[in-house]
Known about the structure:
Blueprint: H1 2-21, E1 26-28, E2 31-34, E3 36-43, E4 49-55, E5 62-67, E6 92-97, H2 99-102, E7 114-122, H3 135-144, E8 148-151, H4 154-183, H5 185-192, E9 202-203, H6 206-211, E10 220-232, E11 238-243, E12 250-255, E13 268-283, E14 287-299
Parallel strand pairs: 9-10, 12-14
Antiparallel strand pairs: 1-2, 2-7, 3-4, 4-6, 5-7, 7-8, 10-11, 10-13, 11-12, 13-14
Helix pairs in contact: 4-5
Organism: Ligilactobacillus agilis
Protein name: Lipoprotein
Keywords: Signal
Amino acid sequence: MKKYILLGFSLLIVLFSLTACKDKGTKINGHTVYKTEITSIKTDSDQDWKITGTTDAPDGTKILAFSNDKSDYYNWTLSYTDSDWVKVKDGKFKLAVDPTEVTNDDAWDEANKDIKVTIVAVSEYDKDADDEAPKALVKGIRKNFTPEKLTTTKKQVKYKEKLEEDSDEEDSDSDSSSSESRDNEDEDTDSSVNTSDKSQYQSVTYDQLARTPDDFKKKLITISGTVLQSIVGEDGTTELIVDTTGNGDVIEVLEMNKSSVRHLEGDSVTIYGVSGGLTSYESSGSGTVTAPLIGAYIIE
């Protein structure tokens, strides 16, 4: 009889231990965030990282991946299914991460480099897969969870080099046809829009440029802010880093034409220019920063 009692007691201890070890998640910004255990990292035919793993998150919970760039709040998971989202099924998941998107080009210019990506399961997450995630959520995830190291391979580097070669060839091919376009850019612009006419510029916010950059690319826009940094190039044109909200939401501004007016740190400015989508630059305080880019025709 004692043997049966001891056996039953032992089973209870084992069951209690298994229950106690189960990850109940961490509450962050109204979401329950679960850690993941990565079981395999390979590369697929597109030279993306193919990642499989496990988690204690409930089935249907969405898997998100965030870069180590503190200014980047986008999710970088890619699904191998028809769904936009990678979700937990039977405690498992499979996703892809594109090295060309999760980090800037310079960060993977050679093999065997470790790219840090934090992969977690997030409950009650209702944003679209390509939307910027809430900043408080991402900051909490980076604070509470350890990033995974994704190591670049020789094949990925070769793939990157081929992409760059193809891009250079496209640029070269387009140079002959677009040289006329460049030479006649002012003429073409004048026929459709006058860049000196401020009424032609659409007022935008930082969120619009950061969340949906393709919606404004190559369009005339205007936005205001405070100069954080001013750099004068060898050709006399100025590059500005401008805080548009007072909360560190910065844009990079490239002056299209040399100006006689210097814009210094602390100046309040209004930019009238053409949107160039997103760009990345190195900041001494924040590392690699991804920000909206504007080619400025007018800076006031």
